[in-house]
Amino acid sequence: MTVKANRLFINGEWVDSSSGETFEVRNPANGEVIALAAKGTREDAQRAIKAARFAFDEGGWGDSKARDRAELLWKVADLIEARAEEFAQTDTRNNGKPLRESRYDVSDAVNQFRYYAGLCTKPQGQTYDVPDDISAMVVREPIGVVGAITCWNYPLVMNAQKIAPALAAGNTLVLKPADLTPLSTIMLFECLEQAGFPPGVANLVTGPGSVVGDEISRNELVDKVAFTGGTETGITIMKNAADTVKKLSLELGGKSPNIVFADADFETAVDYALFAIFANQGEVCSAGSRLLLQEEIYEPFLARLVERAQKIVVGDGADPETEMGPLISKEHMERVLAYIQLGRDEGAQLLCGGNRLTDRGRGNGYFVEPTIFAVDRQDLRIVQEEIFGPVLVVQKFTTEQEAIRLANSTRYGLAGGVFTNDGAKAQRVIRKLRAGITWINTYHPTFNEAPWGGYKMSGIGRELGTYGYEAYTEVKQINVNLQVQPIGWFRE
Ligand code: NAD
Questions:
Q1: 3-class DSSP string for 385-443
Q2: Which residue intervals define the domain Aldehyde dehydrogenase in the entry (predicted)?
């Protein structure tokens, strides 16, 4: 069945693309077209940006009160929750991820709106004890118009984690979701509309990154760009945003190390090593895609890991038995398979997987087996480059120093994990990892309360938590004279 989703939300109204054109949205489990989305144009993006500018400067939203914004955000959370199962089913159908993951994403998005509804009414700013009868203080103010550009691996959450803090802090917004997964975003904007945000405060323009995203990152009326996606795209956006000195936050790629010492709890570490790379089909920026094993446990650990990886049930995310879904698109599947071929060509040892799965009704879907390579060289491209799929590279290390050196030897610095029963060693190693999101004896749990973001080429700035709120604010110092009289600096 084809769902008609071909609408943009601009200045409080659902409208067609100015070109009248649409693009196809598919279910990656079977390749079928499930919707037609509006192919927004540069003019659509400009109109949305102007609406957001007007709503901020003249429409009153720039002077809105935190308590009123909190109330609206809380309503959004309730509205998402009321449609929770519909949201989950939509993301599974559009993204492919297993339903249990989509359901988790929905609760995460609901919590983001509630978290920021609460946070925006809490105390903020500072006062200073300064000389000269001056009362000095700092207040936080909204930045203005935010342009948000997002990717497809967590379609609902990625958008919620930008919309909620941006609006909570009093900004207006134009959002461009990933072309591959616009459906839950359209539903999310239905919730924003229903909650009662004034026209122009939140605008949605679906369409190509090279057109709509490009306009958002260049347009002089946009004050900040918040981007989640690949590092190369992030670099392009940063360059395009430079001409108008926009504020930027970039959540980019990763190639994160998961280090297991010989003294770790064996079964726990195996279990998390699988979860680290194969959750969400490996389409996770923070995936533990490089497993570093201490030599004493290298052989038994690999044997157990491969045994369990081969048992992972790969299928349509809508099937409750499914543990790992399809990759997002045919193009992405082909890219991942090309990396697997590259690994073979580079001389890495393929331990399991490596193929597209086409049996048992999976023929038209974009399914790839959980794949594990053993490698002994740090300079291989499959060690250095982000594959963004179910492909794990395993390396052996001897000493703590070697583990740290290998862990830090890529251009990325998003996440990392350490498994050991030696508490002091765990802390020592984690402190040495050049990464923004880290775990000890676990992998992947993250919370809306804590900051999310990367070192090195994994990004700039932080989302989520109080850091992610501050990222949508400007800082203003105010100096108040407590003795209102002439300064007398110049003779009369
Ligand atoms: P992508 O960079 O291709 O696309 C991301 C978004 O940017 C899409 O909406 C796309 O349409 C838009 N875009 C593309 N070209 C553009 C341009 N020239 N100007 C403006 N916008 C443009 O990334 P992707 O393939 O959708 O996502 C995968 C990448 O995202 C991976 O590298 C992954 O690690 C990263 N990611 C990072 C995080 C994080 O929090 N750090 C989270 C999820 C995904």
A1: CCCCCCEEEEEEECCHHHHHHHHCCCCEECEEEEECCCHHHHHHHHHHCCCCEEEECCC
A2: 14-478
Q: Which range of residues forms the domain containing residue 337?
A: 257-440
The yes-or-no verdict on residue 5 having pLDDT over 90 is: no
Q: Tell me the CA–centroid distance for residue 253 and ligand 1, in Å.
A: 9
Residue 180 Cα to ligand 1 middle (Å): 11
Candidate of 108, 214, 231, 233 to mutate for ligand 1, largest count of ligand atoms within 8 Å of Cβ? 233
Cα gap 38→21, rounded to integer Å: 6
pLDDT in tens, 423-445: 999 999 999 999 999 999 999 99
Instruction: Write down the residue that tokens 């050196």 correspond to.
Output: 405
Say yes or no: 47 and 187 in one domain. yes
Rounded distance between C-alpha atoms, residue 99 and residue 319, angstroms: 8
The answer to the question of residue 323 being in a domain is yes
299 is catalytic: no
Number of domains in the chain: 2
CATH code at 465? 3.40.605.10
pTM of the predicted structure, to 2 decimals:
0.97
Q: Are 95 and 280 within 8 A, CB to CB?
A: no
> Which residue type, as a one-letter code, is found at position 87?
F
Catalytic hit among 101, 193, 215, 251? 251
- For residue 24, the cross-strand partners are 36
Residue 178 CA, ligand 1 centroid: distance in Å: 8
Contact partners, residue 110, CB within 8 Å, separation at least 6: 77, 80, 81, 84
Q: What is the per-residue pLDDT across 127-146, written as a single tens digit (0 to 9) for each?
A: 999 999 999 999 999 999 99
